[in-house]
Amino acid sequence: MNFKYVSLTPMLETLDLAGTIKFYVETIGFTCDSYSAEARWASLKRDGVRIMFSFPNAHRNIKAPILSGSLYLRSDNVDAVWSHLKDRCSICYPIENFKYGMREFAVFDNNGYLLQFGQAI
Questions:
Q1: Domain positions in the chain
Q2: How many Cβ atoms from other residues are within 10 Å of residue 53's Cβ?
Q3: CA pair distance 36, 81, nearest whole angstrom
Q4: Is the dihedral of CA 81, 88, 73, 82 positive or negative?
């Protein structure tokens, strides 16, 4: 193929855009670098990670946000991330070392999306 992909930015739906921006900024440590009240859309970023959120599209018939997987964020200090988040989020599983060579944990955001944080051991 004669092209390359340069980035991937998840576009997730939320019924509570203000609450989602607040969660990602105040809890996870992102910044909101772009927001449109009219479009009901926001872009958030931290370091090399970017996530966009929008109100559900009127053409889709989805009653609540869904994601069949997770968002996996690699960190250079997962223990520090764990210390920062463990008392601020709903925990899916606590930090631990896994046989496949990762130290990781997972939390849920305000929409119920699963956020996993990991670092190679």
A1: 9-56, 69-121
A2: 25
A3: 29
A4: positive
Contact 25, 43 (CB under 8 A): no
The fold of 69-121 is 2,3-Dihydroxybiphenyl 1,2-Dioxygenase; domain 1 (3.10.180)
Q: Which two tokens stand for residue 38?
A: 């009219």
**Domains 9-56 and 69-121 are alike in CATH topology:** yes
* pTM (2 d.p.): 0.91
Element (H, E) at 48: none
Tokens of 59: 């053409």
Instruction: Give 61-76 pLDDT, tens digit per residue.
Output: 777 777 889 999 999 9
59 membership: H or E segment, kind and range: none
Correct CATH for 9-56 of 3.40.50.10540, 3.10.180.10, 3.50.50.60, 3.20.20.20: 3.10.180.10
**Exposed, middle or buried: residue 94 (CB in 10 Å: 0-12, 13-18, 19+)?**
exposed
